[in-house]
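Students often ask why inverse folding is considered easier than folding. One informal answer: many sequences map to the same fold, so there is more than one right answer. In these notes we will look at a single instance of the problem. The structure comes first.
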């Protein structure tokens, strides 16, 4: 039995195989309608989510399975003081696989240690978000045709942004990558990400405060919102929340085939006039999230693809 807690839990070869499966699902989703018949996914979401929770549910329903779970700590036994370990022990009696989102870093890992079913980390605090990373990788590969030899710009909240941390760690395993890290001083990438993922591999990176300076050089621009829920005081959030706003004028600085990604939800960091630009890939990214999660559920449950090969 395997879990997905950290994006590095899967090798590059396994990620490529999973993305290949997601591409096959995207090409013919109806062929996978009964793959998870009589299987149940538990969605254990201790903090708010729209896209991640609903895309997990859509993925399981698309595969012919069922969904159970809760969408907030207040509606679970956590409100009575139950531990994550005890919750997953009980859920293991009811479901075949579980996706857990928790505000505390390490909570999905703890759940996996006590679980009798595969556990998927659907986001833990400001730490990791591996299924969003798989979604990002699929979108980048479909837009650019590869996952190596790219210059990736990440902009906004790089300190608390778990999607950023997971994406850097994953893309650092591909050849000839370069990172441009665009943020205010207060929201820079944590030092441990640089020292663990980039510096040992001698992967080039630059830390900038100017989005305009970076735009002409990027293959991918990954925008993020400044996350109000990660700040300890309102004043810092208000001071930093509008630092970067991508609009149609700034898009004129970019390469014709650059792709703009965003894990969503956005607040005002991408204006509406960017949505019609063919380089805007963030709603396509949301759709890819369903295909990736379908492929991941199949892989962790060791179900067969339509060709008969074990995932």
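Output (designed amino acids):
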């Amino acid at each position: 039995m395997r879990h997905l807690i950290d994006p590095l839990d899967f090798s590059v070869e396994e990620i490529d195989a999973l993305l290949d499966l997601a591409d096959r699902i995207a090409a013919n989703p109806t062929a996978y309608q009964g793959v998870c018949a009589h299987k149940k996914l538990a969605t254990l979401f201790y903090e708010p989510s729209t896209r991640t929770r609903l895309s997990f549910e859509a993925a399981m329903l698309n595969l012919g399975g069922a969904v159970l779970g809760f969408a907030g700590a207040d509606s679970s036994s956590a409100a009575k003081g139950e531990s994550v370990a005890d919750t997953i022990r009980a859920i293991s009696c009811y479901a075949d696989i579980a996706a857990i989102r928790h505000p505390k870093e390490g909570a999905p890992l703890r759940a996996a240690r006590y679980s009798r079913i595969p556990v998927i980390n659907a986001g833990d605090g400001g730490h990791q978000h591996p299924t969003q990373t798989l979604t990002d990788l699929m979108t980048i590969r479909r837009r650019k045709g590869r996952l190596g030899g790219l210059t990736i710009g990440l902009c906004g909240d790089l300190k608390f942004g778990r999607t950023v941390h997971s994406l850097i760690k994953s893309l650092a395993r591909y050849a000839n990558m370069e990172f441009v890290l665009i943020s205010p001083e207060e929201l820079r990438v944590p030092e441990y990400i640089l020292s663990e993922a980039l510096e040992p591999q001698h992967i080039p990176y630059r830390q900038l405060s100017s989005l305009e300076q970076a735009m002409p050089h990027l293959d991918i621009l990954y925008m993020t919102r400044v996350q109000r829920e990660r700040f300890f005081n309102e004043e810092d959030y208000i001071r930093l929340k509008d630092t970067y706003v991508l609009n149609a004028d700034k898009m004129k600085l970019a390469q014709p085939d650059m792709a703009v990604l965003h894990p969503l939800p956005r607040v005002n960091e991408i204006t509406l006039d960017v949505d019609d630009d063919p380089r805007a890939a963030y709603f396509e990214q949301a759709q890819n999230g369903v295909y990736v999660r379908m492929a991941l559920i199949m892989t962790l449950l060791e179900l067969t693809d339509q060709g008969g090969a074990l995932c």
